[in-house]
């Protein structure tokens, strides 16, 4: 009897410990999610890659800046060109002066040099090289602008209805945006459309010349089953990450956007994977894959450097079918769209050609200055140098305290241009002031205030405004 009781209490004790661990794990997940949700740039999405079942969704359709997640689409188009036979892994990509001048992170190849297609892919996956991304865009699209139109048209074909590209690397551009849901679609498409090439995304490091280049993605090796895909950072977006996980017959793709640090983003991603991977199905797949191939009209994009036209054959389109997502509408598969028509519409009406603005707030535009090159994935070496001195309204403190207003316009692009111009002409006056655009409504008309904030006192703001006026820049100081 005594032994039986002892065994019983031992089981109870073990169960209590097990229950305590479960509770602690649940508290961790809820706590991390709660902290992340308080961040206005935060968005997250987890989908079962076998069935399309949405396992987790927060702000999944709110517009966000992709940062270097952009390179996922750049690589998609490279792999598509390889599959078509128009280029191969050993094709040489020329480095233009424009590409060589791109800001970090970069490989640093000189203008006039070349890099193989395979090494270009590896540099984008690991170091997130902006210079190589531009060179790739010029090589495949004839120009980076043309390549960006190809990227946007391809996004439409993949069902990424709320994404628009303006460059191949993800450095700040107010017209380049995406959503967490769309990045999940792209992650699944890369896996399903190019299984023979997907291993590039799990590369831990590789050698280029005398350089040993490591991967910025710290999730590789941290969680069993993580096999890629891509990290991203600019100040306007925060820290972004798309992760693919395949383990024990289950498969998910997870997205976290707007992390306040690389570490907190990675911790949140790890919590999401641990929480939701066990809920994913071991069934599905085959003809029911989320990113199944279907024929769609092709395009005749012309590559640079005298190469021939890129594929005219039909290219795949995933039938993306998320199911049973609580309180979030299902993504709709668009009607077949000719890429050339889409590209033309994007070119002639760049902002409104894509899907309607979601109801969630749109992050304010990042404001480039002569030194506003944004280091992507600065956590690769600690937090890295502060090479993006201009903050935006996407940060909580952007519009607090005293501000200096330099323009107000019904045109957002005009307000943005005023910020850029003033930032260039009066960088010495404004110092580390935070540039941002603020919307307000006056008698039914939306206006955009171009402002610099972050002044500690009324005197500082007034002194800055007086200095601007001496440079013949109109302004006024106001508390906000």
UniProtKB/TrEMBL annotation:
Protein's UniProt keywords contain Cell wall biogenesis/degradation: yes
Record-level GO BP terms: cell wall organization; peptidoglycan biosynthetic process; proteolysis; regulation of cell shape
SUPFAM superfamilies listed in its UniProt record: beta-lactamase/transpeptidase-like (SSF56601), Sporulation related repeat (SSF110997)
Alphabetic keyword roster: Carboxypeptidase, Cell shape, Cell wall biogenesis/degradation, Hydrolase, Peptidoglycan synthesis, Protease, Signal
MF terms (GO), sorted A to Z: peptidoglycan binding; serine-type D-Ala-D-Ala carboxypeptidase activity
Limits of the SPOR domain: 396-480
Pfam families, A to Z: Peptidase_S11, SPOR
Entry annotation: catalytic residues: 68, 71, 128
Residues the record lists as binding substrate: 230
Region called Disordered, residue ranges: 279-305
Family the UniProt entry places it in: Belongs to the peptidase S11 family.
Protein name per Swiss-Prot or TrEMBL: D-alanyl-D-alanine carboxypeptidase
UniProt source species: Neoaquamicrobium microcysteis
């Amino acid at each position: 009897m005594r032994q039986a009781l002892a065994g019983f209490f031992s089981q109870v004790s073990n169960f209590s410990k097990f229950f305590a661990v479960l509770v602690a794990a649940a508290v961790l997940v809820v706590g991390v999610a709660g902290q992340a949700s308080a961040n206005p740039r935060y968005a997250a999405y987890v989908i079962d890659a076998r069935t399309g079942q949405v396992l987790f969704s927060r702000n999944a359709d709110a517009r966000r800046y992709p940062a270097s997640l952009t390179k996922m689409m750049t690589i998609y188009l490279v792999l598509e060109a390889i599959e078509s036979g128009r280029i191969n892994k050993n094709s040489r990509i020329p480095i233009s002066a424009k590409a060589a001048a791109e800001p970090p992170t970069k490989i640093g190849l000189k203008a006039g040099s070349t890099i193989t297609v395979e090494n270009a892919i590896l540099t984008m996956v690991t170091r997130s090289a902006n210079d190589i991304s531009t060179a790739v865009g010029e090589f495949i699209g004839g120009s980076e602008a043309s390549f960006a139109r190809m990227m946007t048209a391809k996004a439409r074909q993949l069902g990424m209805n709320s994404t628009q590209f303006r460059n191949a690397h993800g450095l700040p551009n107010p017209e380049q945006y995406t959503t967490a849901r769309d990045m999940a679609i792209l992650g699944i498409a890369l896996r399903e459309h190019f299984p023979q090439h997907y291993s590039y995304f799990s590369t831990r490091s590789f050698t280029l010349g005398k350089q040993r280049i490591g991967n910025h993605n710290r999730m590789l090796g941290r969680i069993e089953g993580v096999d890629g895909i891509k990290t991203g950072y600019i100040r306007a977006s925060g820290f972004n990450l798309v992760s693919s996980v395949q383990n024990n017959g289950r498969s998910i793709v997870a997205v976290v956007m707007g992390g306040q640090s690389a570490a907190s983003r990675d911790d949140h991603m790890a919590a999401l994977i641990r929480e939701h991977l066990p809920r994913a199905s071991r069934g599905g797949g085959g003809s029911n894959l989320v990113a199944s191939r279907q024929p769609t009209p092709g395009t005749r994009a012309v590559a640079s450097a005298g190469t021939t036209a890129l594929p005219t054959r039909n290219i795949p389109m995933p039938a993306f079918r998320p199911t049973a997502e609580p309180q979030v509408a299902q993504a709709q598969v668009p009607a077949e769209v000719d890429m050339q028509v889409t590209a033309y519409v994007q070119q002639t009406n760049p902002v409104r050609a894509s899907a309607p603005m979601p109801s969630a707030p749109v992050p304010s535009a990042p404001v480039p200055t002569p030194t506003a090159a944004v280091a992507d994935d600065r956590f690769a070496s600690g937090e890295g140098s502060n090479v993006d001195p201009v903050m935006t309204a996407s940060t909580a403190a952007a519009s607090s305290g005293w501000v200096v207003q330099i323009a107000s316009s019904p045109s957002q692009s005009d307000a943005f241009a005023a910020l850029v111009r003033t930032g260039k002409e009066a960088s010495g006056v404004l110092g580390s002031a935070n540039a941002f655009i603020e919307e307000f409504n006056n008698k039914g008309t939306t206006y955009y205030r171009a402002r610099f904030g972050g002044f500690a006192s009324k005197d500082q703001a007034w002194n800055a405004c007086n200095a601007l006026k001496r440079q013949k820049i109109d302004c006024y100081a106001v508390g906000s």
